[in-house]
Amino acid sequence: xxxxxxxxxxxxxxxxxxxxxxxxxxxxxxxxxxxxxxxxxxxxxxxxxxxxxxxxxxxxxxxxxxxxxxxxxxxxxxxxxxxxxxxxxxxxxxxxxxxxxxxxxxxxxxxxxxxxxxxxxxxxxxxxxxxxxxxxxxxxxxxxxxxxxxxxxxxxxxxxxxxxxxxxxxxxxxxxxxxxxxxxxxxxxxxxxxxxxxxxxxxxxxxxxxxxxxxxxxxxxxxxxxxxxxxxxxxxxxxxxxxxxxxxxxxxxxxxxxxxxxxxxxxxxxxxxxxxxxxxxxxxxxxxxxxxxxxxxxxxxxxxxxxxxxxxxxxxxxxxxxxxxxxxxxxxxxxxxxxxxxxxxxxxxxxxxxxxxxxxxxxxxxxxxxxxxxxxxxxxxxxxxxxxxxxxxxxxxxxxxxxxxxxxxxxxxxxxxxxxxxxxxxxxxxxxxxxxxxxxxxxxxxxxxxxxxxxxxxxxxxxxxxxxxxxxxxxxxxxxxxxxxxxxxxxxxxxxxxxxxxxxxxxxxxxxxxxxxxxxxxxxxxxxxxxxxxxxxxxxxxxxxxxxxxxxxxxxxxxxxxxxxxxxxxxxxxxxxxxxxxxxxxxxxxxxxxxxxxxxxxxxxxxxxxxxxxxxxxxxxxxxxxxxxxxxxxxxxxxxxxxxxxxxxxxxxxxxxxxxxxxxxxxxxxxxxxxxxxxxxxxxxxxxxxxxxxxxxxxxxxxxxxxxxxxxxxxxxxxxxxxxxxxxxxxxxxxxxxxxxxxxxxxxxxxxxxxxxxxxxxxxxxxxxxxxxxxxxxxxxxxxxxxxxxxxxxxxxxxxx
Length: 801
Description:
- Pfam families: AAA_5.
- This is AAA+ ATPase domain-containing protein.
- It is a single chain.
- Helix 4 (75-90) packs antiparallel against helix 5, helix 19 packs across helix 20 (346-358) and helix 20 packs antiparallel against helix 21 (363-371).
- The chain starts with 11 loop residues before the first helix and ends with a helix.
- It has 40 helices and 9 strands.
- The protein is globular and about 90 Å long.
- Strand 6 (650-651) and strand 7 (658-659) form a beta hairpin.
- It folds into 4 domains: 9-198, no CATH class; 287-464, no CATH class; 518-694, 3-Layer(aba) Sandwich (Rossmann fold), CATH 3.40.50; 701-800, no CATH class.
- It has 801 residues and is mainly alpha-helical.
């Protein structure tokens, strides 16, 4: 164990795979996947020649371009490329890229050549979890990071064997060697990842450029002299913090309290909003009476049961049943499973309980799982709710009860780094304790300190799961429900007096709040929840995003549906579409003629901003469609300043009155990437928006049509294959065909033929003007071949029904 090595069980396969790559591939000349000859200097030189020195700056996905670049490479070079991609993907957590997707990418590369060897099962399974959230640049600039990795291997392989061994035995020498390579590609993420993977006891698991800089800047006294390499200074910080804590061999997790908000300050908007709701909740309940007393009583009963078990008193089984049935901390179905096993095999049950109660470490939870029969509490959620309640004998203030529902809901709300899908019970529970500690830290910083983890647990449960909160108004409960669904809603500013008459929030609208969760919305839109979660996090962070993509990718549809979900009501949403004659006077304010002269009228932006400012408990959304069709600088005017400095006032051009954009107003723009005017956007506007690409060739957009057809038109599943093949031939995201053309529940083959002939092909002819051979290959007949159903057959089938 060390201050920089992640100790969790899910990290061990990652470190094992990295060590295997170092020993068998970097030091020796062996293939990571087959164990035979491979990873040679000649193969690395091929990849340098074919990939690094021949960059493909055109359109298309990374893998599709890589297949072209390696088309003439040897089988050994292709094998090495797949193994290096494995190493590149190894460090990323599953919430960045899932294990199945990682394996699919490696498999695609192996498919570039015949006779390649796939990864053995133990390596393939290592991709199910990772170590760090790598950030968006990790995916966006994969070609840069992969190129740096290729150069690292070529550099190491160029050394004599004894020098290779010396290099890979010395972490600081290895780090210096990486620094001598050309980092102008922006491959700092890959460098930091390699340093940690190969030397986890020296270099910390931090790969983000800004995060590394902030950590070093927060503890300069621990980092050491400024002329030291950043990786060395970062490691010094970790070891220094471990020394200060009196545990030099214990891992320092800078994403946990008390360190997280020391370097990543202030708390994110999601955490700040959660703090407001937790304060609001704490003002309306008595934590001692409502949440703590009955858990303390349950703990005392469990301690009494433990004493009976230790004495082997035969009454312990009955008293254990009373302890569970006397509280609502565990679902009755879960504890009934445990109690049935106790009755069936008291000897084994007693042994398992004693082990759970003897060892205070979280590892005892995994031992308890192994002690259970395979058909008892097989689901982690049920099992951990039972075992965490049993662990209260170690002190509920230190080890409170866990339930998946409220913990998962709160983790989603604050975008907390949740445990990996393969995490054992100990790792999941430890993550729960870390979440509670962050709540304790947050409330202390807000001036509303809690006593311990049990208070934090009770407060979280009440805020995110309680059916009602005493003393709250209907308007407050509406806002609370919206926040629970993940919407950016703050508590109404005026609290209700606990003993006073019930009042209503005068600024609240009567529009209902939708019960749809973000996961429900994603399912309805046939998108991955993680995609919408990213959009949601970007809006929380910056308040404005732009959806870009080719026509038919659903940008406007998703923007409108998401906007209504975020606002909770269509009454708090508005959409405008820009065009070349649209200006500031239409968008913000301007004089309009009338019979007796001119009158100053507000545009949609000013109207919705005023409504949002008057109703801070709700979110408002303005969708600006086809943003690049208008002259953005002319349309937005002085709003460029207000987009960046929310809450600040600026004087408007015509009314000359102070105006600001409230924090609860969100802007979603859409842009057609096939329109060349997108290139005319000035950098000032680009800097104020986050951009989300709707690429029909990449997940999640690439999966929308197959999912939709499987639900609504399974006999037309071939349409998704046709679309995929067409986009592969076009090989240009700006001209790709989007799925929206075919998202109609009454879709038939006849519809598909008409859509393709009169909607899709005319657009392609304009974009691919003069490329006759390509256009000929993009007709529906050419794409679907003879095996696809015909329009006539589709009509006949319909008649037969």
